[in-house]
Each structure stands twice: as structure tokens, then as C-alpha cells.
Write a structure and sequence with these properties.
Blueprint: H1 4-13, H2 38-41, H3 57-60, E1 71-91, E2 96-97, E3 104-121, E4 124-139, E5 152-169, E6 172-191, H4 193-202, E7 228-250, E8 253-260, E9 263-274, H5 280-286, E10 291-301, E11 304-313, E12 316-325, E13 332-333, E14 335-336, H6 340-345, E15 350-351, E16 357-367, E17 372-381, E18 399-409, E19 414-423, E20 426-432, E21 441-460
Length: 461
């Protein structure tokens, strides 16, 4: 029997493998994680580029570092994300239910951050930062009904940067950062080998053979008896920068602007394909060998811009922020490999086709006493995902969050910051039938709940 027609069938039903490198739900829109400062978490990150509240300005608004005392700040955020599908999955012609556990994922991440600001001379400040603005993961498990869409995903994006700020006018300062960004991603998905075989048989690609004759029992369709797996890991380091300005209208009123560039990565690593011995009759005929090979995919963290306003009224300060992110950069993904098995499975790109997104936040800080400051805020982050493009890994709607926080002066040099953010429950309908799933359709309503807590210490230097 010729293997070329069967190879085409395999490629056709498995074209979505290229999407697997980045799938994972996160606590903000897209795949960015907000929780990079305990102080700013407490007011929903409403200060943006204008608050100049602490050393995290080295990351959020370098131009505002001139208003920050010499300071070292460390933070630790804990993020709880729970996703649950209220629905079902079918395979074959749509009449065979996929057996397995409910599609539920509970994820709990810890994110440490470090910030530093030093005023070197009049009108000249420097800063540094290390944080993880892209860091999350999920694990639905190998036995979930969503296993043909995803079983496990992890992503870690670490930024390290150096920042400078200059005063160019008595009311105007400018600043910028050079950013080194390390990205690492791992993802896994089950391959519906039984459906793959039956599809090839129905198309006449097995020649004189049948799936039963090759050891695959059609009655097992919907079970994980013959499931294969695809796992991919990749990493890369690339560079970008940010630029911004701060305009001080009065000593108590200022406007900040900041822009962060896109950072383009070529994530390189390994792609592993494995099938159980029970499916070897079919996979051997199809040329689908157990394989570990080099793989790579082009991936971009998008550019963003924000404008912020801060106003002080005695012991009360008010702040507002509007930001824009070019999420249309997340258009499509395709794995490339010199290995014929991986290349065939990833023959076509996975299309996401996201849109630009806007975020709005309002917040307030109130100095209750010389030692204690209370804060709160509200944020609305518009989803970049159209309803008809929702996937189990990115099944979030508009992100509405309420934040509370406080700062307490422990000593003359040390301050404790605490912040908490609760996200309103998100619900999104899903009807996902990617080619990769070999006829496995997943549909229903996905509910996502997110809660974040952060604590930090700041030392005056």
C-alpha cells in the first residue's frame, strides 16, 4: 500500500499541532499577567505611567523614577485560576461521546519580582527590575474530555531590564528601559489515534487493511485506550525596550505616557510524539513512529501603550489609566521541524486571529495615618478574542476586577505592601473542533475564576 495518501490524511487531521506551544489561561487578557507589584495590585494598576508610587516604576514607567526615593522593592504574588467546562465532547461522526474526567483545571502560581531605583544626580535616575509578566499554566490531565484540545500547558516569561530617567524640563522628564525577555513554554495534547485510524479507513487510505485487523477496536472510540501524545517544549531570549514621558502640571497633578515594544521570539526546543503499543499496527503502517525531534515556532509578545493621570488631594490621591495592546500579533502559530513526522503533523498553522484590546482602570489611595495607607481600584480589560474564536485554553471574556490594598510603614526605612484582587466570574461559550482533534468536538460553557494576592517589602536606600 502507498503511504503518501495516508500521510496526507494524518497531516489534514493534525494540522493544529503548531498551536500547542503557547496555550494556557492566564489572569489577565491575552497571555500577560498583571500581578507584578503588591502595591499596584491594591489599586488595580490604575496608576500606570503616572503614579511614581515605588521602585516598580523602573518597569511600569521609567520616566517617573525621578519622583521615587532610592528604594529596593521585593514582591511575591500568588495567583489562583480555576477553569471548568460545563459541557461535553464527542468524536467519530459526533455520535460517540468521549469518555473521561470533567474538564477542570486548578492552577496556583507564585510570581516573585524585584525592583530597584537610585537617584544618581539632580535630574538623573537609574533603575533595574526582574519580573515574570508571562507566567502561568494549566493541567486538565490525560483523562479529561478536553484531552484532544489540551492536557497540560506551562508558560514562563521573565523580563530583566535596566532603566534610565532624565529631566529635560522643570516639568517634563523622559525615561526608557532595555528589556531582556526569556520565554519558556511546554504543552501537551492527546492524539485521538482511534479516530485517526477510522478516518483513514473511511477515506480508503488503509487499502486492504481495516482498523480491527490492525489491532484497533472501533468500540474503543471515545476511550483513551489508543491515545498518543504530543509534547513540545521551547525557549528563547530576545530583547525589546520601552519609552515614556512624565509631565508634572503641578506638584500634585501629573500625566504619564509609556510605550513598550513588541519582542519577537523564535522558540526552539524539542517535539516528542509517542503512541501506545496497542496502536502500533496502525501507527506503524502510517509511519507515525515514536519521535523526539527539534522544533521551533515564531512567537511575539505584543507592543503596548498606556496613558495615566495622577492627582493628589491632601491625604487622598486619585488615578486613572487607559492602555492598549496589539493582540493582533497573536494571529497564527506554526511549528517547524526537520523531522518528517513532526513536520507532517504540523503541516498547517493554527489560526487565532485576535484583535487589539483596551484596558481601563480607576483607583484611589487614602493616607489614614502616618503609618497606614489604604487603597482600592477597579479595572476593565476588554477581551481580544471574538466569540467564534474561543478555545478551551483561551476561554475568557471581558476581565472585570476589584482590588483592595494597604501599605504600612514598619520602620523609617521599611514599608509593607499588601494587595488583593478579585476577578468577576467569566463565562464563555465554546464550540471547538480543531483539525488536531481528529473529529473530537468540545462544546459547552467555560467558567473561569481568578483571585490574586501579593505582599511586598520596600527598603529606602
Amino acid at each position: 500500500m502507498k503511504r503518501q495518501p495516508l500521510a496526507k490524511t494524518i497531516a489534514a487531521v493534525s494540522a493544529g499541532l503548531s498551536a500547542l506551544l503557547i496555550n494556557s489561561p492566564v489572569s489577565a487578557q491575552g497571555y500577560y499577567v498583571d500581578e507584578q507589584s503588591a502595591l499596584r495590585l491594591g489599586d488595580a494598576f490604575s496608576g500606570g505611567a503616572a503614579s511614581a508610587s515605588d521602585a516598580s516604576a523602573a518597569y511600569y514607567s521609567p520616566a517617573a523614577m525621578l519622583l521615587v526615593r532610592d528604594e529596593l522593592a521585593i514582591n511575591l504574588a500568588a495567583i489562583s485560576v480555576r477553569s471548568e467546562l460545563n459541557g461535553s465532547a464527542e468524536t467519530g461522526d459526533g455520535s460517540v461521546p468521549i469518555n473521561g474526567d470533567d474538564a477542570e483545571a486548578d492552577n496556583f502560581d507564585f510570581l516573585p519580582t524585584l525592583y530597584f531605583v537610585r537617584n544618581l544626580s539632580e535630574g538623573f535616575s537609574a533603575g533595574a527590575f526582574i519580573n515574570a509578566p508571562y507566567a502561568t499554566g494549566t493541567d486538565f490531565g490525560d483523562d479529561s474530555i478536553a484531552r484532544y484540545q489540551t492536557t497540560e500547558s506551562e508558560i514562563t516569561g521573565i523580563d530583566a531590564g535596566l532603566s534610565l530617567a532624565f529631566r529635560v524640563h522643570e516639568k517634563v522628564s523622559i525615561g526608557g528601559s532595555i528589556i531582556a525577555q526569556y520565554m519558556n513554554a511546554k504543552t501537551a495534547v492527546a492524539i485521538n489515534t482511534a479516530a485517526l485510524c477510522l478516518g483513514a479507513e473511511a477515506a480508503g487510505d488503509l487499502g486492504p487493511y481495516t482498523c480491527s485487523g490492525l489491532g484497533i477496536d472501533p468500540a474503543e472510540l471515545g476511550n483513551n485506550t489508543y491515545d498518543g501524545s504530543f509534547v513540545m517544549e521551547g525557549h528563547n531570549t530576545a530583547f525589546g525596550f520601552s519609552l515614556g514621558t512624565l509631565v508634572e502640571f503641578t506638584p500634585s497633578s501629573r500625566l504619564g505616557l509609556n510605550y513598550r515594544t513588541r519582542i519577537a521570539h523564535e522558540l526552539t526546543g524539542s517535539a516528542t510524539v509517542e503512541f501506545p503499543a496497542a496502536a502500533s499496527g496502525f501507527t506503524g503502517l502510517a509511519g507515525l513512529d515514536n519521535t523526539k525531534a527539534d522544533g521551533r515556532v515564531q512567537f511575539v509578545t505584543p507592543e503596548s501603550a498606556n496613558i495615566s493621570y495622577f492627582h493628589q488631594l491632601g491625604d487622598l490621591s486619585l488615578q486613572a489609566d487607559a492602555s492598549w495592546t496589539k493582540w493582533s500579533r497573536f494571529d497564527k502559530l506554526q511549528v517547524e521541524s526537520n523531522n518528517s513526522t513532526v513536520a507532517a503533523l504540523a503541516a498547517e498553522p493554527q489560526v487565532y486571529d485576535w484583535s487589539e484590546s483596551q484596558r481601563f482602570a480607576l483607583g484611589a489611595n487614602y493616607k489614614l495615618s502616618p503609618q497606614l495607607t489604604l487603597r482600592g481600584g477597579f479595572a476593565l480589560d476588554m477581551t481580544p478574542i471574538d466569540k467564534d474564536k474561543t478555545k478551551i485554553d483561551f476561554a475568557f471574556d471581558d476581565y472585570k476586577a476589584i482590588s483592595l490594598g494597604m501599605s504600612y510603614v514598619l520602620t523609617e526605612a521599611m514599608t509593607l505592601d499588601v494587595g488583593y484582587q478579585h476577578t468577576m466570574t467569566q463565562k464563555r461559550d465554546i464550540d471547538q473542533n480543531d483539525l488536531l482533534t481528529a473529529g473530537a468536538r468540545l462544546h459547552g460553557e467555560v467558567t473561569t475564576e481568578v483571585n490574586s494576592f501579593a505582599a511586598g517589602l520596600r527598603w529606602a536606600l
